[in-house]
Here is the input.
Amino acid sequence: MTLPRILARSEHPISRGYIDPDALRILYRLHRSGYKGYLVGGSVRDLMMGRTPKDFDVGTDARPHEIRRLFRNSRVIGRRFRLAHVFFDGGKIVEVSTFRRRPEPVTVEPGAEGSEDLLIREDNTFGSPEEDALRRDFTINGLFYDIASFAVLDYVGGVADLERRLVRTIGDPETRFREDPVRMLRACEFAARLGFEMTGDLLAAVEDAKGEIRKSAAPRVTEELLDPLRRGWGAPTYRLWSSTGLLGVLLPELQARVERASEPVGAEVFWRMLAEADRRRTEGEILPEPALLGILFLPMVLTAIRQASGGAARMDPGRLLAVLEDVVNPIAVRLSLPNHSTHMVKQGLYTMGRLAETRPGDPRSRRVVGKAYFPVALTLLSLYAAASGRYQGAADAWEEVVARAGPRQRHAGEAHPAAPFPEALVPPPALFARAELPPPSGTASRRRRSRPRRRKASGHANP
Here is the structure.
């Protein structure tokens, strides 16, 4: 048994005033009921660094059915990892999990199928707080805050690594990454988000095990790809994924486009778009999720358009739609994107060109403002303009209309001269006005057949 390093209340910066009140209620009720109640994971790490946690997770020695009995506003969820969600007003959820230990490895004959597969598929083996800390991914995430003593418990050296600003795995990094390959993506994200360095053995393990990421469930990987974009540290995270080779495994099409050696101009615009999206998110702006996905698809779409058009200044709408289908659909299937999200990405990429080529005063363009994909297209155009220095006038004109009109469509005043769209993404406006991507399969609306109107009786009898 390993004794933890204990930081008394006077030795750490965490105050109960910084902890979510509902999470505190859960901790107090567990403690009063005779159970251990610890704040665990990223919330302790962030509080130790003076940051505001995204959420507050609770660890306890109470079993899931005991947690359910203590909190009537809770529900036990999960199969691989059973835990309780405690629900509060406003849709808030506090996650409460029982302390666990690493499951025993499955015995497989040497050389048999799966003999080298360490992937964790079952994780419901309960354990002690020490065992729970040792089964976590990184030392900086293995800290506990004990509500009974107001002390921080460190079984894994996390406090020292916070001081050294290091991301280090708990245990052998290659083993931990083969158990859960998504940890490689998370290691880069933590380093980017916190401004930390990754240890040398961790980086070497990523190089050796990066191909294992293909074994992870696609929805989980997609969530990891989107999370840094949503939260404002997308550019540094994607740079680390690119430099470690993880991006090349997950999205080789994108990696080939953003390497400076192959397409230096397009790569620079891509990284600037990510940085601009991060800046806006940091300032509190919520960007549409299809627009964030559109940033990832745009370099591939522009390259495919250049190849398909042979350098021509314009492209037929039908060919443009075919290019979008060919580029977006295979990757969307691989990432298990919902049909609606895929459609919004394609329509947003298709429509951003129309916004660059027309102005709000043009009658042909007014109806696009009411479309569901308009915010996606405008966000993409605005990010592209900020990153490339082109078409800023068009982006400003459309954003001014949105700011003045609010939720309703309003007419813009002065029309501005039209500008060509970059990379031949948009066909001529007259053709473009006719074309619109079809909705996802199964959602097409049916036209109502009009009935002939009945004539009203005149009130006079026919002769």
